[in-house]
Amino acid sequence: MESTNFTGISGARSARLRDVFAVWSAGRAGRTAGRWLALGLLLWSVSVRAEAPRFDFYLLALSVAPAFCEDAPQRKRGFAQCKALSERDFKRVPLTLHGLWPNREDRRHPAYCAGKSARAFCALPAPALPSETEAALRQFMPATADCLERHQWAKHGSCSGLAPAEYFSASAALSARVNRAIGDELARHMGREVDLALLRERLRENDRSLEQAVVFECRTPRTPDPAKRRPMLREVHVYFNRDPVTGAPGQPLPYVRAGAKHYNSGCPRGRAYVDSPLD
C-alpha cells in the first residue's frame, strides 16, 4: 500500500503532482505556463480517479461449492474445481471464495476499471502475486484452477484501488475469518438442512461483529436430477466498510446499511439445505 503524506496524497501521486509543477516552472511565463499547469492538473486528477473509482463498501461473496457445481451439468463436466471436489475439500473449506466486490449504495457498482474483459477467464492476464498470496488464494479459491482470480481481478479488483497482492490477501483473510465462524457448522450439516438461526448463533459466539453483516442466499439448482431440485445454500454474502484511509476492507457492515432487507435470501422457513459433494 502506498504511504500517504499529511495531505492524504500517496507518494506516487505526490510525485506526479511535483512533475506537473516542474512543467509549470520550466515553461514559458504567463498564459503558456498557466495552460501547462491546468492541463497537468487535469491529467493528474483523471489518473487519481482512474486508480480508485468511488465506491462505498465491499461485498465478500462466498460459495458453497457443491451447490455451485450442481447448478449446471456443464460445470460438473467441465470445471476443474468441480471435477476435483471431494468430501475432504468441502469439510476443510466449506465456503470458497467467489469474489470481493467494491459496491456502491446506488447499486451502480464499478466494474472492469482497467478495461479488460474476456469470455474465457484464462484468456485474461494473470495478476502478479507473491507466492504466499498465491498459496492462500488457492486454499480458499479452488476455482483458480479455472482462472477465476483473473476474472475477479479484471472485473472487481481493478476497481478497488488496491494492488493485486493487497486485494487477494484481504480476500483470502476474510474468507478464512468467515469459515472460522461458521465453517464447522456447515460441515456438520453436509447433506442435510441447517437452521439459519443456528448459523447466526455461531456467528454471535465466534465472531460477533459478523452476525449483522451476513446474508444467506438459497437457490434451486438448474440440475437434471429431480431429487436435487430443492433450495440449497448457494452463497454467503458478507458486507464490509471501505477503510477511508487505506481503501481496503474495514469493519463488518450491517447488511441493512448495504441495502439488503433480511439475512435470509430465499431460504424457505429459515432453513437451508447444505449440498454434499457425495450426492
Write up this protein.
With 279 residues, this protein is an alpha+beta fold. The chain has two domains: 11-51; 57-273, Ribonuclease T2-like (Ribonuclease Rh, Chain A, Alpha-Beta Complex), CATH 3.90.730. 41% of the residues lie in helices and 16% in strands. Strands 1, 2, 4, 5, 6 and 7 form a six-stranded mixed sheet that branches. A two-stranded antiparallel sheet has the order 3-8. Helix 1 runs antiparallel to helix 2 (31-51) and helix 9 (164-188) packs across helix 10 (196-206). The chain is globular, with a radius of gyration of 22 Å. Residues 1-34 and 36-50 have low confidence and may be disordered.
Put the structure in a nutshell.
This is Putative ribonuclease I. This protein has 279 residues and is an alpha+beta fold.
